[in-house]
Amino acid sequence: xxxxxxxxxxxxxxxxxxxxENCQVQEYxxxxxxxxxxxxxxxxxxxxxxxxxxQCKEMAYVVKGKVNITIKDTVFELSAGDAVLIEPEExxxxxxxxxxxxxxxxxxxxxxHVVLKFEKNSSDLYSKxxx
Length: 131
Description:
Blueprint: E1 14-18, E2 23-29, E3 35-45, E4 50-53, E5 57-71, E6 74-79, E7 83-86, E8 92-105, E9 113-120, E10 126-130
Antiparallel strand pairs: 1-2, 2-3, 3-8, 4-9, 5-6, 5-7, 5-8, 9-10
């Protein structure tokens, strides 16, 4: 399946976001309240740790492939045709080989997207390190 921008939301409104070799994003800014993106994940995103969106609610629809998404400590198995809603501040990560259609409200921005790295401490709990 190929995706292309509508005539009034052409490539000028589109931004390619490289999240590393395992996650590629084509972001379409519709306005400040809503956006959409086509995301390709091959493997795990992020490679280590988890991510969260501080402000936006994210709806992800699996276009093709299979994925495990871990939200907080719960693993959800999704495949083509499934959707998931990720609330602001929910910690998550993706694992699989898939293509997603994602829409965020308010529109996604890198400033509010936080990658978290977890390291084991002496009591076998994990502490959060932001980077």
